[in-house]
Amino acid sequence: MSVTHDEVRKIARLAELDVDDATLPALAEQMSRILEYVAQINAVPASEGVKPFIPGPDAVRFRPDEVKPSGLAFGPAAFAPAFKDGFFLVPKLGAFEEPEL
Amino acid sequence: MSDPSEALASAKAAADRISKTKRLNACLTALKDLRKSLVAQAQAAHPSGVLYGMPVAVKDNICTLEFTTTCGSKILGGYRSPYDSTATAKLKAAGALIAGKTNCDEFGMGSSTEHSAYGRSIHPFDKTRVPGGSSGGSAALVAAGAVPAALGSETGGSVRQPASLCGVVGIKPTYGRVSRYGLVAFGSSLDQIGVLGRSVHDASRVLSVISGRDPRDATCEDRDPLRLPTVPESLQGFVIGIPKEYFPTDLDPAVRRACDRAIRLFRELGAAVREVSLPHTQYAVATYYIVAPAEASSNLARYDGARYGPRFNGSEDVRALYRTTRGEGFGGEVRRRVLIGTYVLSSGYYDAYYRKAQQMRALIAQDFRNAFDRGVDLLFTPTTPTPAFKAGEKLDDPVAMYLSDIFTVTANLAGLPAISLPIGRIKGLPIGGQFIGQAFLEDEMLEAAYALERVVPATEEA
């Protein structure tokens, strides 16, 4: 299993992560080794009948749909990078659109 | 302890002890702030609590009101949670004092505490070695005698592995035993808060307090807090299974000798010992390193510079903001795991990796059920394949680092409780043995651990 530099760039775009060109070769090599190692599970014969296992309660318990105090010791303004009039401030969305990957 | 002056003395003594361990880089809280907070907490603590005056350090991925919660990451530098985790709220309600935040691998991703943005923690016995991870700061503080117990968290062994390497007790409860409200998510189907302690009793007392139902966490089982067992006189009636896959031919001979010595002690205590097989064990690390990064890539999507922590600027649009913040804010191991997780979940690879890993996980859980259905009460294994390794030894080889979790990840994949306790030394370095119990039968597991702890020569060479 060998991951190319272009594949790393594509995955990094999907993960919204800047990866600089200097670290790309080492990252591609490490990802290839990890993926080669984990691919060993495919040596186990197909187990189509096996139901995926998730620990914990069989069903998620729902809380009553009631308005309650937030329980916060201080408001969001205190931990938001930028906050005004009850809103989180982020840069404008103008350049959000991007060609299909 | 029920006298306020004793709680105050305990707080000051804990601050003094923690300041003496500064060289370990185990505590991330500034010592001046820690001392001030400990004194204030001691003055406010309720004297009737069962942990009144007990200092408990807390891993830095568990939210506390008193201190910042950075998860060992630059991306959460200076972040202060506006609420307490349920575990720390329960500790405080029981009179315990939150004794600072401990260093850890970034977001719990690592086995050496070398992947912390705030520098590596040092093994308390040998400064050239790692204390394990990711709860390495908690383990080092307990091992150095600074606190009697500390909270850690586990996704693949991050409490038991450092406990083994530092010579302390580490408990990972059943998935659903302890509320995760306020535990920063890494791998949600695996994460559990655990406890490190000087002794089985210290760790169990803290576990008992933090366990039990919590309406704020839907994955927390609707059960009463864990009741502590009495210390047994013998292990008469216990059937202890020894899974042969955990004792490969290339296992470090000294680790094997330490385990053999513990197994002889089980027999002397009256337990029946039986070899068992968990045939899918060899695939556990591979399974784990698909499931955990997949869940991590989703959980860590929220760190984008808009909602938490610092924003790395110089970005002309919101997408560039996300990428710059995440690219600069995450360390190397987190970046690797986010990329692996994104890869295994992406179109075209999902079936070969993620779906297959979920099936393997079911087979690994079934292995345990089969063993327990055949009359085995508990399983006993080494916790780690080696004692503490040298700093830097595995940094450039992620797969080698991952393999240090080889004996611990199975309990996380199957959601089972497990405990590591010291069973000997190898050239002066501690090594741990592990009991894996049946779901929600921590009391049986703790009984066996109490019994072994009383007789095992934990500080003698194996």
Features:
heterodimer; A: 101 residues; mainly alpha; Histone, subunit A; two-stranded antiparallel sheet; B: 462 residues; alpha/beta; Amidase signature (AS) enzymes; D-Maltodextrin-Binding Protein, domain 2; 3 domains; ten-stranded mixed β-sheet; 10 strands
Give the distance, in angstroms, between the N- and C-terminal Cα atoms of chain B.
38 Å
Oligomer: heterodimer
Structural class of chain A: mainly alpha
Shape of chain B: globular
The CATH architecture of the largest domain in chain B would be Alpha-Beta Complex
Give the CATH class of the domain at 1-43 in chain A: Mainly Alpha
Helix percent band of chain B = 25-40%
Fourth CATH level, the homologous superfamily of the largest domain in chain B: Amidase signature (AS) domain
Largest sheet of chain B: 10 strands, mixed
- Give the class of chain B from helix and strand content and strand pairing: alpha/beta
Poorly predicted runs of chain B are none
Overview of the molecule:
The complex is a heterodimer of chains A (101) and B (462). Chain A has 101 residues and is mainly alpha-helical. Chain A has a domain at 1-43: Orthogonal Bundle (Histone, subunit A), CATH 1.10.20. Chain A is built from two helices and two strands. The longest helix of chain A has 15 residues, at 24-38. The model of chain A has no long low-confidence stretch (mean pLDDT 83). Chain B is an alpha/beta fold. Chain B folds into three domains: 4-210, Amidase signature (AS) enzymes; 239-277 and 367-455, D-Maltodextrin-Binding Protein, domain 2 (3-Layer(aba) Sandwich), CATH 3.40.190; 285-351, no CATH class. The relative contact order of chain B is 0.14. The mean pLDDT of chain B is 95. Chains A and B meet through helix 1 and helix 2 of A and helix 8, helix 9, helix 10, helix 11 and helix 12 of B.
